[in-house]
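Journal club side-thread
Mid-discussion, someone asked how the predicted structure for our own chain would compare to the paper's figures. Pasting it here so we can look after the session.
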Amino acid sequence: EVHLVESGGGLAQLGGSLRLSCAASGYTYDSYTMGWIRQAPGKEREGVATIDGDSNTDYADSVKGRFSISLNRTENTLYLQMNSLKPDDTAMYYCAAGGPYYCSYDCRWDEYTYWGQGTQVTVSS
């Protein structure tokens, strides 16, 4: 059985940083797109960042230059480093795996095979 478990969320101040982790069990991160998706209250889910089968990364314009997605294959863990946080970044963040070999940052939720339970990020001003 596959489990993706996110951690690292919490409360941050404007301009602060957080690093989200997504540890996989029962699944090996391989040549498929993995990504981070977020959902703020009252808003639709939006793709934040992806890393595809060729290890190319892609980001939403709203986070480009501030967030960085990475994968540690040895630890079987996906990361999202978030810097210069803004109140608009407040959302539940989900990791997802098993997407198409190539997929951009806005890879749809249903294009992935596995999803985590989410970790809350709150940025105060």
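Post-session note: The CA atoms of residues 17 and 83 lie 4 Å apart.
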